[in-house]
Write a structure and sequence with these properties.
Length: 322
């Protein structure tokens, strides 16, 4: 992207007005059923001529729209590929489980112009790990071995998740864009805390938790792993002395409140870009905000489909960027 961002940011400023608000999410949570939510979204301009009233197609159409928009504003593959790390490595995890357990779970994949279901399953079936990006080769081979030999999906996920975090850390160190650096660093920290909490709640060992954690500027991972391996109280006590103290307070309330805090804190970290008109920041922040919006609507639609109460849905509602 060129160094003149004025036009792109001006376009984003107009589009920000159509983002879903926190009030919109609460309103959808109070609707009677999934069909009511779909009608609300269609009235907001979601979907396209091919999606009809199919919730999954509507969500896919929105993802396609935002990706097309961001690319039309000159954001290149170097940036988009970094932002897509979580989706790409998720696809690798899904493919490892599909090939390792010989199950068909194509619905679990994200769309990607290169790293889609076929790309990964073809490579894994033939064990052509050399055709993978360098950052994935060893993790893919190790994860598939674990699945084929032990059918241990949890261990497989840990291996690939750690590889994803390492890629994000490297990208954060190399990025020339402050928003990407800050976003990735915050995402790594929040993911590490999630891993620590899961480890504490499931009684994982220090070695298991430490192996899963990535280095973060927010805390010492050895100390974090030690606290998590002791118990949840020790973990909360450790977090209370760091920038992640709010995570500990949320965890005291409930695991749902903690998970919500994790997502909200990442969105909060990009919100200041709204007042930064002369950099790529507002464009990237808009993209991330839209992705969060789509993710939240996906969760809401699933909750409605499964008969969750209005209060239960509101409890899980994330803050919007808009």
């Amino acid at each position: 992207m060129g160094e003149n961002y004025v036009f792109a940011v001006a376009r984003i400023r107009v589009l920000e007005k159509s983002l879903l608000s926190d009030a919109d999410i609460i309103q959808m949570a109070g609707m009677k059923d999934e069909d009511g939510v779909v009608s609300f979204l269609l009235d907001k301009g979601w979907g396209d001529e091919n999606s009809g009233r199919d919730p999954l197609k509507i969500l896919a159409a929105e993802s396609a729209k935002v990706n097309k928009l961001i690319r039309s504003l000159g954001v290149g593959d170097d940036v988009m590929d970094v932002l897509a790390f979580p989706q790409v490595f998720h696809n690798l995890k899904a493919a490892v489980k599909e090939v390792g357990d010989e199950g068909v779970i194509s619905a679990a994949y994200y769309e990607h112009r290169v790293y889609d279901r076929k790309f990964f399953t073809d490579i894994l079936k033939d064990k052509n790990f050399k055709d993978l990006p360098e950052s994935m080769k060893q993790a893919a081979e190790n994860a598939l071995t674990v699945m084929l030999q032990n059918h241990d999906g949890q261990k497989s996920d840990v291996i690939i998740d750690r590889a994803c975090l390492d890629c994000m850390k490297k990208a954060a160190e190399q990025s020339k864009y402050p928003i990407i650096k800050n976003y990735l660093e915050k995402t790594i920290a929040v993911t590490d805390v999630k891993i620590a909490v899961r480890g504490a709640r499931t009684g994982k060992t220090y070695d298991f938790i430490r192996e899963a954690l990535a280095p973060s500027r927010f805390f010492d991972k050895d100390t974090l792993a030690k606290a998590a391996s002791e118990n949840e109280e020790a973990l909360i006590s450790y977090m209370s002395d760091h920038e992640m103290s709010e995570a500990g307070e949320a965890l005291k309330v409930s695991i749902t409140e903690f998970e919500k805090w994790c997502d909200n804190s990442v969105i909060a970290s990009i919100r200041p870009e709204k007042t930064n008109p002369f950099t790529i920041g507002p464009v990237i922040a808009y993209y991330l905000g839209r992705e969060n919006e789509i993710k939240t609507v996906r969760v809401l639609l699933t909750a409605k489909k499964n008969g969750f109460s209005e209060d239960a849905i509101k409890e899980r509602a994330r803050q919007m960027y808009g």
